[in-house]
Amino acid sequence: MHVLIALAPALIFLVALWFMDSFRLVRPSSIALALLYGAGAALGCEALHGWLMPVAGLDATTFSRYVAPVTEEVAKAAFIGLLLARGRVGFLVDAAVQGFAIGTGFAIVENATYLRDFGEAPLMLWAVRGLGTGVLHGATTAMAAIVGKAIADRHPRLRVPILAGVALAVLTHSLYNHLLAYPAVAAVAMLIALPVVVVAVFERSEKATREWVGAGLDLDLTLLQLVMSDGFQATRFGSYLRGLPSHFEGVVVADMFCLLRIELELAVQAKAWLIAHEAGLDLPVDDDLRAALAERDYLRRTIGRTGLLALEPLRVTSHRDYWHHHLLAQGSGIRRPRSGGAPRKAKP
User: DSSP assignment of 207-240, as one string?
Assistant: First the structure.
């Protein structure tokens, strides 16, 4: 009973979060990886605290209120920061699920350590550990991920958007540890606050996802038809491309046109995949999709950093559309090539 109460609540919340997401874009394998990272972070923090507490000369209460929240939240959020930097998080709900999974892995290891050392403690302790501290670790990392993702959406060029989320997580964690003088109050506070935050985030994320899929699909189809039409040269996009040969070779400009077209095609396919996925359908992955993804990577390499910067004014897709390339690559089982020969190239 002690083990069940100490370890199960965070896992139950994690499973509930995953099922609440109608798109379920976070794969079970990604959740498992986040759990493993959280467990590793807990082991690392345990070793760090064992060394740091005597060095700092702080008592256990002061250390738990002012030092542990910083080290633990930074360790947990580092993985989310990496995912954000690599464009592996599409929506707030995805950030919440992966963040909560990291915190759950952390809580399981931490509570297992307490069970090892204080297994004969009263049942109330394990209720506080499981319903309070266990859920806390998941909730704070989920909040850090949510805030980090929200900032990354608003400021795509910001290098470390996770920092503000980490600061909020540290503050929440420290406040909770201050409330441990009243353990029942702390546990109840977590159980009341978490559902409110989660429901608000999921509602906002669902709305953003549907807006992105619906309005974005219409826009992408319109732009793709324009790019493929005979009147493209008369548009501002065509005029801009016609001015680039003075700065780049003609073959590079041709590659830029190909990249613009392919990215619009992939944007349409990603949104169609999301619509089908929400409806419970799995669209077949064909060789054309694999070829398009490989061609996109090849074109980005051949165009080069300077060429891609010159192409930025023609970007008509949002920063989130960079993530859907990762989504399609996952669905097609493609690994990004490091080097090698050129794939089939379409000519404009």
Answer: HHHHHHHHHHHHHHHHHHHHHTSGGGGGSHHHHH
DSSP letter for 338, please: S
pLDDT digits (tens, 9 = 90+) for 312-330: 777 655 555 556 666 666 6
pLDDT digits (tens, 9 = 90+) for 50-69: 999 999 999 999 999 999 99
Length of the chain: 348
At residue 149, what is the residue type? K
For residue 53, count CB atoms less than 10 angstroms from its CB and return exposed for 0-12, middle for 13-18, buried for 19 or more: middle
Q: How far is the C-alpha of 255 from the C-alpha of 261, rounded, in Å?
A: 10
- Measured between alpha carbons, how far is 142 from 164 in angstroms, rounded to an integer? 13
Q: Where are the alpha helices (DSSP H) in the chain?
A: 2-20, 28-56, 60-66, 68-85, 92-118, 123-127, 135-154, 162-179, 183-227, 236-243, 250-278, 287-311, 320-332
DSSP state of 319: T
Give Cα 286 distance to the centre of its chain.
27
Domain limits, the chain: 2-207, 228-332
Cβ neighbours for 120, distance < 8 A, ≥ 6 positions apart? none
For range 10-39, the mean pLDDT: 87
The residue among 102, 97, 320 whose CA lies nearest residue 198 is 97
Average pLDDT, the chain: 80
Burial of 243 (0-12, 13-18, 19+ CB in 10 A): exposed
Distance CA 347, CA 57 (A): 68
CA nearest neighbour of 138 among 175, 178, 97: 97
